[in-house]
Amino acid sequence: MNKSIMLVEDDRRMRHLLCDYFKKENFSIVEAADGKEAVGKYNDGIDIVILDIMIPFIDGWEVCRTIRSQSNVPIIILTAKSQEDDKLLGYELGADDYVTKPFSPKVLVAKVKALLKRADGLYGEDDGIVKAGGIVINNIAHEVTVDGQVIVLTPKEYELLSYLIKNKGIALSREKILDNVWGYDYYGDIRTVDTHIKRIREKIKDKGNFISTVRGSGYKFEVKG
Fold first, then answer.
1. 4-120 CATH choice from 3.40.640.10, 3.30.750.80, 3.40.50.2000, 3.40.50.2300
2. Bridge partners for 129 per DSSP
3. Separation between Cα atoms, residue 118 and residue 195, nearest integer Å
């Protein structure tokens, strides 16, 4: 597939096992056994990050926060924790997906491929430029601006905002949003949608009121004023 993965996992056997699976699929691997090593090795040439949370020196939450502050690279959180609050924290920090141990390496490989495929399609030239109320989504330059100011979004935030704008004026249920933005194979918490909407509203500032909550259902994008 000629894509580069950063794999951050302190369990050496698990890390080597996953590396073997990904190398068979023609991925190149950047390995890190702890948070400090991950932060030091991360670079713009990495296409996706698989990040264990319980790692030495700097925990995965902080690594996620650090990487997200400088890049919109897709991040998959890998952890033994399954509590909903932990998942929501990961999404709030900018993670794109969450995989709970134990898991099948083949399933993780499939998730990585799907996320990369969606990201590639997201940043393709289809649809060109989409405009709505001062918000401009430029799928050629891979850029979002609000009143001329560039706004940095994660891939999932970018895809979600694009989906809302393309369906402006239509009330979209959380389930429909999950199916179309996260994919039919997503089995996580439906509140993930709420968390991402909250972050988008904060980032687009006064345009955030264009995304209205539909009580008991989901969300709708409408240009106001």
1. 3.40.50.2300
2. 138
3. 20
Could you say which of 3.40.630.10, 1.10.10.10, 1.10.1040.10, 3.90.180.10 is the CATH number of the domain covering 129-221?
Answer: 1.10.10.10
Instruction: Give 29-34's long-range contacts (Cβ < 8 A, gap of 24+).
Output: 29/4, 29/5, 30/4, 30/5, 30/6, 31/6, 31/7, 32/6, 32/7, 32/8, 33/8, 33/9, 34/8, 34/10, 34/58
Q: What is the pLDDT of residues 136-153, one digit of tens each?
A: 998 877 789 999 999 988
The yes-or-no verdict on residue 111 having pLDDT over 70 is yes
- Measured CA to CA, the distance from residue 225 to residue 186 in angstroms comes to 36
Residue with tokens 């009143």: 147
Question: pTM to 2 decimals?
Answer: 0.65
> 19-28, 78-87, 105-114, 135-144: which has the minimum mean pLDDT?
78-87
Residue 164: which of 191, 204, 125, 124 has the closest Cα? 204
How far is residue 182's CA from residue 178's CA, in Å, rounded to a whole number? 5
